[in-house]
Amino acid sequence: AIQMTQSPSSLSASVGDRVTITCRASQSIRSGLGWYQQKPGQAPKLLIHGAVSLHSGVPLRFSGSGSGTDFTLTISSLQPEDFATYYCLQDYNYPYTFGQGTRLEIK
Amino acid sequence: DVQLVQSGVEVKKIGESLKISCKSSGYTFRNYWIAWVRQAPGKGLEWMGIIYPDDSDAKYSPSFEGQVTMSVDKSISAAYLQWDSLKAADTAFYYCARQTGTNPTYFDSWGQGTLVTVAS
Known about the structure:
Order of helices and strands of chain B: EEEEEEEEEEE
Oligomer: heterodimer
Distance between the termini of chain B: 40 Å
Largest sheet of chain A: 7 strands, mixed
Strand content of chain B: over 45%
Number of helices of chain A: 0
Helix content of chain B: under 10%
Distance between the termini of chain A: 36 Å
Number of helices of chain B: 0
Number of strands of chain A: 11
Helix content of chain A: under 10%
Order of helices and strands of chain A: EEEEEEEEEEE
Shape of chain A: globular
Largest interface: A-B, 26 and 27 residues
Number of strands of chain B: 11
Shape of chain B: globular
Structural class of chain A: mainly beta
């Protein structure tokens, strides 16, 4: 199975900061990567699909980049509602696999 | 609107069987893969497997193969996840999610989650 290594595992930041979360795949997954946000007590929510495509309704401050093995989720200017846990998911090859998650906390 | 509504909280004992459900509405159920995702208390997301309702083609993660069974009932647009003999380690939230698209593909609609607690 493809391993997804996500970093950092946690991150403290302030409102207005620019933050970057990365995922590295153990082999090429081309653009088969999605980013999901999960808030406590809620189901995950899709942010980015195909590594770079913003899902409908997701604020423009979220962006994704990368292909092959290295991927990045960037939040350009953190808002209070962005403090949550973020996961990457490779959907290129079965079994699909999640990264370990990044918990984004308020500094 | 697309909706996935999961069955409610379950409290079971070790060794008991269980079947939880995910009922879909607002789209043609048979044409979209449905995945199951586990989240143990305080832990990350784990992809368990995926099933195609039209022909019940199922793909399991090796970690879950033989431990759970996915199934569907097209007549009521429902997907199921079942255990024959629960373990304490099965205690978790379980989410169903609809897969959309072909290239790329993604999970755009999720159920609210079902909490399964397995006690001794």
